[in-house]
Specification:
Elements (H helix, E strand, L loop, with lengths): L5 E2 L6 E7 L3 H16 L5 E8 L3 H11 L3 E3 L2 H6 L5 E4 L6 H10 L3 E5 L6 H14 L3 E4 L6 H11 L6 E9 L16 H4 L3 H4 L1 H11 L3 E9 L4 E3 L11 E3 L5 E8 L4 E7 L8 E8 L2 E6 L5 E6 L10 E4 L22 H16 L1 E2 L4 H20 L3 E2 H5 L1
Parallel strand pairs: 2-3, 2-5, 3-4, 5-6, 6-7, 8-13
Antiparallel strand pairs: 1-18, 8-14, 9-12, 9-19, 10-11, 12-13, 14-15, 15-16, 16-17
């Protein structure tokens, strides 16, 4: 098992976990630790020591509800605790960098939510910190670990698609379509970094890196469709009821991969009727793959080696025990849900801690995603193709 990880760090039979973040991702990660312990043979057993948030009452309630031993409202105190070996960063993007750097300096292994940072410079500083300290580090691009996606990677590595020519991916949401939706943190560049480009597009870029290969150059366009939104009730004043949206609402970009493949990406929060629709298709010289997250237990596969009269997409129901990760769950055919990919991520991360090697994608691969996001943002601003080498230099 340890051969699947990148070297660095030290072996641990158990690890005290400090989770920074109590909201959506804090909830998902909390459940994932419990399920990983219950369903998988985890080599480093997680001990859910402390959950940290900004609000005392809410953080205490989260600790009790999610099964943490204690709670804190001071992440710096959590990072310094001797009984904590792992820091799980599930916060808004603007505090990923200081938490990760402090954790690395205190010798803590780190699991960090995506994207790695809000800026390229911050991402670089995070990579330098973990590589200098030698701690285990993984970015939670969880969709790599959907069993159907992991199977797609296996089929590609086995040569079933031949040379890859095309990648196309879309992520469609509609939760921001209503102009009365308040100015939550995801609309603020200071906290979120970017909008649909960084939030949704980062997942698509990581999967493209995982399944096709590194991106060479990109060109894109973005738009903010609603420029002002109502402030949250506690932020409103008699003179100020709205605030500016400082991120994109939708993004489209094209890419050329280092291996010559062509790619297209779309991410939006304004696709009415799409609650959370994430799709990719890969076309190669010998076959094609198609995945739709709304049918996450299925992978569609076309092979040109089939007899001509039988050619066309076939649907593989990813439920057999020998499919990636599936054998640890339910009997064949019962299917998995959204949370399963987080369980698989934490399982691989903890086994990496046990082996002394970082489960992929590590921070350096997270930086690769950040490079592509920066190149796309620069291309939008300058209205031209931008190579990854430009932003790396």
């Amino acid at each position: 098992m340890c051969s699947f990880y990148r070297s660095g760090g030290s072996n641990l039979e158990s690890a005290g976990i400090g989770l920074i973040g109590t909201k959506f991702m804090g909830k998902v990660h909390s459940r994932a630790y419990r399920d990983a312990m219950a369903l998988f043979d985890v080599q480093t057993q997680p001990e859910m020591r402390v959950i940290c948030g900004r609000d005392e009452e809410g953080t205490r309630a989260a600790a009790e509800r999610y099964g943490w031993q204690t709670h804190s409202t001071d992440w710096e105190e959590v990072v310094q605790r001797d009984d904590i070996q792992v820091i799980d960063i599930s916060t808004t993007g603007n505090v990923h960098t200081p938490i990760a750097i402090a954790a690395a300096q205190h010798g803590k292994h780190i699991l960090c939510e995506k994207p790695l940072a809000n800026s390229l410079d911050d991402a670089r500083s995070m990579v330098r910190a973990v590589e200098a300290s030698g701690v285990i580090n993984t970015v939670c691009f969880n969709y790599r670990r959907v069993p159907a996606v992991a199977l797609a990677r296996q089929l590609i590595e086995e040569g079933e698609l031949g040379r890859i020519h095309h990648w196309r991916a879309v992520w469609l949401e509609d939760w921001a379509l209503n102009p009365k939706t308040p100015l939550v943190w995801r609309f603020e560049s200071e906290k979120a970094g970017s909008g649909s480009l960084g939030d949704l597009g980062s997942h698509l870029i990581d999967l493209a890196n995982f399944l096709v290969g590194p991106i060479q150059e990109t060109i894109g366009m973005t738009e903010t469709f609603i420029k002002e939104r109502p402030l949250l009730p506690e932020q409103q004043t008699p003179k100020r009821a709205t605030g500016p949206v400082t991120v994109d609402d939708g993004a489209l970009f094209l890419a050329r991969f280092e291996n010559g493949a062509l790619g297209s990406f779309e991410a939006t929060r304004f696709a009415g009727g799409n609650r959370d629709r994430f799709i990719f298709e890969i076309n190669g010289s010998q076959g094609s793959l198609y995945f739709d997250f709304q049918r996450m237990n299925e992978l569609r596969f076309y092979s040109s080696s089939d007899p001509v009269r039988h050619q066309g997409y076939r649907t593989i129901v990813v439920g057999q025990p020998d499919h990636p990760y599936v054998g640890n769950w339910w009997p064949t055919g019962l299917g998995l849900g959204y949370d399963a990919a987080f369980v698989h991520t934490i399982y691989d991360f903890l086994n990496g801690v046990a082996c002394g090697k970082s489960a992929q994608p590590d921070f350096r691969q997270g930086l690769r995603v950040q490079n592509a996001l920066e190149a796309t943002a620069r291309s939008v601003e300058e209205r031209r193709w931008v190579s990854i080498s430009e932003v790396e230099s």
